[in-house]
Design a protein that fits this description.
single chain; 253 residues; Rossmann fold; 9 helices; 46% helix; oxidoreductase activity; SDR family NAD(P)-dependent oxidoreductase; oxidoreductase; SDR_fam; NAD(P)-bd_dom_sf
């Protein structure tokens, strides 16, 4: 079986990021047209666009603030003008900040995580779900984290944002499932990215010992899960939180 996304258009938010680039690349290799969202790194967006076009993918790049509904609606207009309606939404963007203890974490960091995890998910649904309902086909894929199950020290802002995102996605799955739209989450573990390969920081023995598969996962392994959920092979999977963490976290029944 092959993952065939021909004639589908996918939006990847945060597509210029370490994981976002590989997700966009993988979806393009599966045949999808790609809307490349970025917040500030225009040069990376242009480079990614050129790479994806070399695969034969139709692409568009657009700058947007995913924490503002108006910005997302403007982005939607640009995508539809250049690529047509969006079939697959990958919510990957998140605000970066320094992790500290609850007593030390600035209040604004909690707000940034709520806005970029919870409200981004809400805004993307409001923007793109109606047309999916009309077509009776669509995919929402949220990028969560193994941290949402671990709740380790210094993770409070990140975890609270991602756990809020989890709630939105589970409810959304129930609300729009009757229209044959699936809503799922991929939860990476601590993942090896292009930055790690460049800096030779792929290995962490202490972390690897906690993982049943005894290694860190790769950005490609995260992207593979996203591509699967985007495809018709996953047409009867919805409402799922799927760790791609080598067994480091295991949701219980």
């Amino acid at each position: 079986m092959l993952i065939d996304l021909k004639n589908r258009t996918a939006l990847v938010t945060g597509a210029t990021g370490e994981l976002g680039r590989v997700m966009a690349r993988t979806l393009a290799k599966c045949g999808a047209n790609i809307a490349i969202h970025y917040r500030s790194n225009e040069a990376q967006a242009v480079a990614l666009q050129q790479e994806l076009q070399s695969f034969g993918s139709r692409t568009a790049i657009m700058k947007a603030d995913v924490t503002r509904l108006e910005s997302i609606l403007d982005m939607k207009t640009v995508i539809e003008e250049q690529l047509g309606a969006v079939d697959i939404v990958v919510a990957n963007a998140v605000v970066q900040y320094e992790w500290k203890s609850i007593l030390e974490q600035p209040i604004e960091d909690y707000a940034s995580q709520f806005d970029s995890c919870v409200m981004q998910s809400v805004y993307l649904a409001k923007a793109f779900a109606p047309a999916m309902i009309d077509r009776r086909w669509g995919r929402f894929i949220g990028i969560n984290t193994e941290c949402a199950m671990q709740n380790f020290v210094n993770q409070s802002a990140y975890v609270s944002g991602k756990r809020g995102m989890d709630g939105v996605y589970r409810v959304l799955a129930k609300e729009i499932g009757e229209h044959q739209i699936t809503v799922n989450q991929v939860a990476p573990g601590w993942t090896i990215s292009e930055r790690d390969r460049l800096n030779k920081t792929e290995r962490s023995e202490s972390y690897e010992q906690s993982v049943p598969l005894k290694r860190r996962g790769t950005d490609q392994e995260i992207a593979n899960a996203v591509a699967f959920l985007a495809s018709d092979l996953a047409s009867f999977i919805t409402g799922a939180y799927i760790p791609v963490s080598g067994g480091n976290v295991m949701p219980a029944i």
